[in-house]
Specification:
The protein is an alpha/beta fold. It is 39% helix and 22% strand.
Length: 649
């Protein structure tokens, strides 16, 4: 199933050289620098990869050596993947916003000998832990800013490394091509570490065959071509970015665009107007929050026009996007609103040219998903795991359903066990977990089935519906199933709610922690004339509780319509005094909840929700950006929420 077709390049370095031969003058990468987009062609990318790869070889890198990549999305960071692989190295990307402690585990576990870093910040993180990762021999940095006083012999600018590579090439003229030719599709291409929701992250070993085959199948399904434009802004360490911005990029030959910085993402998104876009649910939820803020600040006549347009879109937008028959009057009204509402809105978001947008990594609330599709954005959910190269299920054009992640992708098999767990066999199946045979045998069985740990349903139409993580699905005291993620996604549809944690397993009723969205609620506070000193102060104000209570009661009315979900209505809630943070270990770097850590850390608050108390004093810790840990006290309010009768509408 993973065998390449005759004559196909079967590694990324070979694909890079093939692209340089076929489309050498076409843009491979763009990066915005000082407000100007700088372009590198496929031929230039191949030349740079050659120089960096041979530069690493000149430092003593051997085939099979592990090389860390740490930084934001830049042209040189992406080319470094090819450079490392071209001479037989194994890239190990890390999250750029990881604190030093998190990096230490991955660097040590992977046995990293070399690290390519974007800037001084990443160099400094490694320097603070060199005694714990003594196997690291050389550090390479891309940006010179702040590095003038760093004179250690084991630190090299990427410019100096490229010059060393050119010298090595002159002395060893056939070495590079020989090393590229030695690579085969069955070899280990990259080690991608999981987000580690329940413990230390695991190193997922992915082969060239798995990545290339999956990327080609997805490309063919969507009809992607070399004229696509992609904005690469997601973490280099996330498999979703690697699948799109590296694997599909190489097998298709389109252009990858790198923003100037995370702060300029929205402006750069509008600049490029990508034809292919991928984002986790949090990005689409945040965009919707920004829309809500702007509409709340608009004049009443504009609000009324917007609300009428969105009401029509929710009724006929999806059928129009799917090519279904819609009445003439509705179609004409939709075209009118496309001109004055939907079109400008998509242009503001950067989606004017987007032919397909994906969301994955976590479930997206049905209301959020429906909103984008209703205004004409071809947003589709995909389902995958790091262990599958992110390739398991993919919604088809004209058949993107709100409550499923689509049917199995081409050449993928899925089945549901008697216990309700989703299993798959994918062309993207991983080789195993690095240095963890026990975990590999628990996840990947002898017949090639990967045990996902997700509770799922296979519908009569062949679509897969993900309920929740199997370990998170529980039952309440009355025996009804409680799926917290489903409720949390409904809550996060509201622009004032950034994060939610639902509780109910083994309890008589459901409760919730809420994280407010500071920008959206701050905007509300400004309109209402409320003063506040920061997140904690704002979160505990009565008017804010009133606002969130209204949102929760709307969710309860929605849950009450389904008799199987009526018992999951939230009866009590509190607004957390601090934002859940990856630096505090409460979220993964991809913003997934670490439920066990949250449950242990906030156990007193959970118990207070199941008492008759209306407030609780808490002492909390917070991790600052420089790594310091502080503590503060807060008085957290607890509110009761009205529920609706089961079956009510």
């Amino acid at each position: 199933m993973n065998e390449p077709r005759h004559g196909q390049a079967d590694t990324f370095p070979k694909l890079l050289l093939e692209n340089a031969r076929i489309r050498g003058s076409r843009p491979a990468y763009r990066q915005k620098y000082l407000g100007i987009w700088q372009t590198h062609t496929w031929q230039e990318a191949a030349d740079i990869a050659r120089e960096i790869g041979l530069g690493l070889a000149s430092l003593g890198m051997k085939r099979g050596d592990k090389v860390a990549l740490i930084g934001q999305n830049t042209t040189l960071m992406y080319i470094s993947f090819d450079a490392i692989q071209s001479v037989g190295g194994i890239p190990v990307p890390l999250y750029a916003d990881s604190v030093a402690e998190e990096m230490t585990y991955v660097l040590d576990h992977a046995g990293v000998r070399f690290a390519v870093c974007q800037d001084q910040e990443q160099i400094d993180k490694i320097e603070t832990m060199r005694d714990r990762v003594p196997q690291i021999e050389h550090l390479v940095y891309e940006e010179h800013k702040g590095m003038r006083r760093y004179e250690q012999p084991d630190m090299h600018s990427i410019d100096a490394l490229r010059e060393a590579g050119r010298e090595f090439d002159r002395a060893n003229p056939g070495f590079f091509d020989e090393q590229v030719a030695l690579g085969t599709g069955s070899e280990l291409a990259i080690i991608v570490y999981t987000s580690g929701t329940t413990g230390n992250p695991k190193g997922v070993m992915l082969s060239y065959d798995a990545l290339c085959r999956s990327a080609r199948l997805a490309r063919d399904l969507e009809g992607l071509g070399e004229n696509e434009e992609v904005l690469a802004y997601l973490p280099l360490a996330w498999v979703g970015d690697h699948f799109i911005s590296h694997a599909q990029h190489h097998v298709t030959g389109f252009t990858v665009n790198c923003p100037e910085s995370p702060d300029t993402l929205v402006a750069d998104l509008r600049d490029i107007g990508p034809t292919l876009f991928i984002a986790p649910p949090a990005i689409f939820e945040n965009f919707l929050t920004q829309i809500g803020i702007r509409i709340a600040d608009a004049a009443r006549i504009k609000q009324a026009l917007y609300n009428r347009a969105i009401a029509l879109a929710r009724r006929v937008g999806e059928p129009i996007l799917n090519g279904e028959a819609v009445g003439l009057v509705d179609r004409l009204m939709y075209r009118f609103y496309e001109f004055c509402i939907y079109g400008p809105l998509k242009n503001t978001l950067g989606f004017s040219r987007t032919t397909v947008a994906y969301t994955g990594g976590a479930p997206l609330g049905e209301e959020v998903f429906s909103f984008y599709r209703s205004i004409g954005v071809n947003l589709k959910q995909l389902y995958g795991q790091t262990e599958s190269c992110a390739y398991v299920c993919l919604q088809r054009n004209g058949d993107a359903r709100l409550d499923t992640v689509g049917p199995p992708a081409p050449e993928v098999e899925v089945r549901i066990t008697e216990a309700g767990e989703l299993l798959y066999r994918s062309p993207g199946n991983f080789l195993g977990y690095y240095r963890n045979d026990e975990a590999t045998s628990e996840t990947l069985d002898a017949d090639g089935w990967v045990h996902t740990g997700d509770a799922g349903i296979l519908t009569d139409s062949g679509h897969v519906k993900i309920i929740d993580r199997a370990k998170d699905v529980g039952t309440m005291t009355d025996g009804t199933v409680f799926a917290p993620q489903y409720i949390e996604n409904k809550l996060k549809f509201y622009p004032f709610i950034r994060e939610a944690v639902a509780h109910g397993t083994g309890r008589d009723y459901a409760t919730a922690f809420i994280n407010i969205d500071l920008e959206a609620v701050g905007n509300f506070a400004e309109r209402e004339g409320l003063g506040y000193s920061g997140y904690m102060d704002l979160s505990q104000q009565d008017q804010v509780y009133d606002l969130i209570q209204g949102n929760i009661e709307e969710v309860n009315r929605d849950l009450a319509r389904d008799s199987t979900l009526a018992s999951s209505q939230i009866r009590r809630f509190l607004i957390l005094h601090k934002e859940l943070d990856a630096d505090d270990g409460e979220l993964t770097r991809t913003r997934k909840l670490r439920r066990r850590i949250i449950g242990d850390r906030y156990n007193d608050l959970i118990e207070a929700l199941y008492s008759n108390r209306d407030h609780i004093q808490v002492n909390s810790r917070v991790t600052f950006e420089d790594g310091r840990v502080g503590e503060f006290n807060a008085d957290v309010k607890i509110r009761n929420v009205a529920t609706a009768p089961a079956g009510s509408s």
